[in-house]
Specification:
mainly alpha, 10 helices, 72% helix
């Protein structure tokens, strides 16, 4: 595969919604029509159970990992690598296969980070886990991790194209969590495992 096609491959892969696929496999309601309406692991957990949520999470993370690993294998230049990261992320939140209405992108972004630099990925996973355990808010964990991601990418890679990509991903994650931020401030955001 020519490296110039990597962003297109990444976008198409990102456009496959793990939540919708898992919901169909488990004969669950479409996640876009129940709960928060977000096709992601947290929403699946609330009405579909742990097994379905784990499969959804794994699928979303792998979507982020695979194109970055392929890009590394093809020795793609940093700009193509950064575009690949952005393409799979935007494929997840604006999927061509699902009417351009996708999830918030946290797990897919995490997958790209782990594939870019495992130390950066582990640092952000640790931050997510600490916030999740102490507060029980999945959205707050995601917000904190997204704010820290450009710092981690800068510290571990020092690659300008990847830093810019991580800033764009972080900004989009915050924008996609606007409703969660309002609910957190109002004290109405549901905690992990609660309907």
């Amino acid at each position: 595969m020519p490296t110039i096609l990597l962003p297109l491959f990444a976008y198409l892969l990102g456009s496959v919604s793990s939540a919708i696929v898992v919901a169909r496999l488990f004969k669950l309601q479409d996640p876009r029509q129940v709960g928060s309406g977000n096709p992601g692991a947290t929403n699946i957990l609330r009405y579909g159970g742990k097994k379905a949520a784990i499969l959804t999470l794994a699928g979303d993370v792998l979507k982020g990992v695979i194109p970055v690993v392929v890009a590394h294998a093809l020795k793609a230049e940093p700009l193509i690598l950064a575009l690949t990261v952005l393409a799979v992320f935007f494929g997840h939140i604006y999927p061509v296969f699902h009417g351009f209405k996708g999830g918030k992108g946290v797990a897919t972004a995490a997958g790209t980070l782990f594939a870019l630099n495992p130390w950066a990925g582990l640092s952000l996973l640790s931050a997510w886990f600490i916030v999740a355990v102490t507060t029980r808010y999945s959205s707050l964990s995601a917000i904190v991790a997204s704010l820290l991601s450009p710092v981690c990418i800068w510290y571990f890679t020092r690659e300008p194209a990847l830093i810019v990509a991580s800033v764009l991903v972080s900004a989009m994650l915050l924008w996609r969590h606007q409703s969660n931020i309002r609910k957190l401030l109002a004290g109405t955001e549901p905690k992990i495992g609660k309907s």
